Amino acid sequence: MKLNGSQILMETLIEQGVDTIFGYPGGAVLNIYDALYDYSDRIKHILTAHEQGAAHAADGYARSTGRPGVVLATSGPGATNLVTGIATAYMDSIPMIALTGNVSTNLLGKDSFQEIYITGITMPITKHNYVVRDVEDLADTIREAFRIATSGRPGPVLIDLPKDITAAICEHEAASPVNVTDEMEAIPAEDLQTIADVLNESQRPVILFGGGVVASGASAELAQLIRKMDCPSCHTVMATGVMPADDPYNLGLIGMHGTVSSSVAVHRADVLLAIGSRFSDRVATNASKFARNQKIIHIDIDAAEINKNVPIDHSYVGDVKAVLKTMLPLIEKKSRSDWNHEISVIRERGEYRSINCEGELKPNQIIQDIYRIMGPDIAMTTDVGQHQMWAAQYSQATDPRRFLTSGGLGTMGFGYGAAIGAAMARPGETIVHITGDGSFHMNLQELCTAVSHQLPIITIIFNNMVLGMVYQWQRIFYNNRFSFTEPNRQTDFVKLAEAFGAHGRRCRTPEEFQDAITEAKRLQGPVVIELVMRADERVLPMIPAGLTIDEVILD
Amino acid sequence: MQQYILAVLVRNNAGVLARVASLFGRRGYNIDSLTVSETNNPGISYITLTVTGDEAILDQITKQAVKLEEVFEVRHINEANALGHELLLIKMEIDPATRTALREITDIYNAKIVDLAPTTMIIELTGSTSKINAFLNIMKGFSIVEMCRTGVTAMEKESSK
Q1: pTM to 2 decimal places
Q2: Which of A107, A382, A520, B8 is a Cys-bridge partner for A527, taking CB atoms 3.0 to 4.6 Å apart?
């Protein structure tokens, strides 16, 4: 069958299981958009206001489904606008296919209109990238890109498509997608015997789990392991929702804004088992002191993570789910009641507890009210800053694919695009987007996208009139020198929402908020709820960067 | 800190050198020297890199580089069992007195005079980095016009395995 490059792109995307893409048209992708016109019954295209929003939407779609998100942008500024979105996905190991148009091959390298060397720009933020210079290579390049994006440690892959390639005609043969999980080799039990022995002999083990558990879909195996070992566990921001927050074995977040008990448990443990996490500086706030007296076992799919940030005693490189499945029978079922009792005493006596004030909007209460009123099955997305940490700390998510946050890159402006992606991935479900007045201002134009498609996205703005997280650091570490964190913006978020065609509410008390969120639940379209909050509220506990739990700030 | 020689086998594609160099730059590993060449397999290029670091850095570099899609293999070359050679070209200013002296030194080092002009000569030397450094040390006593060296290209020896 003779097809042009754009039709081959459509056919190959469909072959790879893609039914939704996010993008923005332009000169270099006119041929592709012309093909999309014919394929609109099979490929849903969501037009965003800005390419960054499209990239975050593709990311949010991928986080929601576990399948690669696809974003399409034109050459030049279209391509550069994707960069933050691609970097966000790269840092959190999210599978993504970024398609960029470029000028025709005869114009490449001549500083042509809207030409940019996007493969050069994205080299350090993609697993791999391609320029397709021959239409004969197009289909196989796309197939290869999907394989790379989804295999091993997932991540984004970019394909740059010169305009003449999208018009050139060649013979196309359909193929079926390679199933990456089928290629996974079985792990011999003896490979894991040493690790199992160390865990079986351990009196005081602690498990630290991260985003690798989500990527590999290993929540159930992890829960079995934790129960069999009768051992406390804690997690990174990326693994929020892997284990219910109220599970007695779950001490919650670890790290800079983690719980006291999780840090103390790691400190007092004899063995730390880290699964699918990478000891980032937000987890191991002081890498040279983190679990220094503990034996550390590290299980991860990426060999380069072993010994990267902290020295590891025993490691195994492999898919977390496959490793846990093989390891579970080797683990002795044990009761470690003394150890658990010790931890429960810390939780009762030493844990940070937020104080509620009558009549005042408090972060923990807001998050609780959202889950209480909306039910546990919402998907929550966040931007970055104080609200993000509060959302993570008080999250009641029971599925990690329902808590979407930019953990590694910390991208302000991530949340609205991600919410659009989540809404497309979860038709009929409500998406709650938690943001701050700083983050929301970064990509609020995507409200128009939610209105166009009547997406049930409820945005909740924690408006404290300051850039809260930086403001908090300036307060603690810079002697209250609030340099450019009090922007004195006069944005009326209710009018803003209405101007975009969305529904807006402003709340000053918990009662007003409960009423607003109840109403928002009823409304089918996009809603913006502004919460008027205090500027001096801090995210606690806080372990300052470079320090340890010994220096935790609790009040 | 120690110097390590790495042999990196890569797909012979446009941009592959940029990928390897970008990775080293991003991770903060300084490349002391780098050579690239084709191999007997036209699809594969051979990069020889020398980097300074410790065992932990060597381990990280190797594992990060292997993750690149177009990198087939990263081998740490143990200098005791390998030939690590580089090429030096050096242009010297000469007069009748220094010309004779330079010729003698060139002979001692098994170097070659590859170009002779009335006031300059170009000397070529191949050998280990330490041999080239020693030769350069002596040349510093004369008047150097310009010089360049290729950096190490290395291969493991079968004879000493």
Answers
A1: 0.95
A2: A520
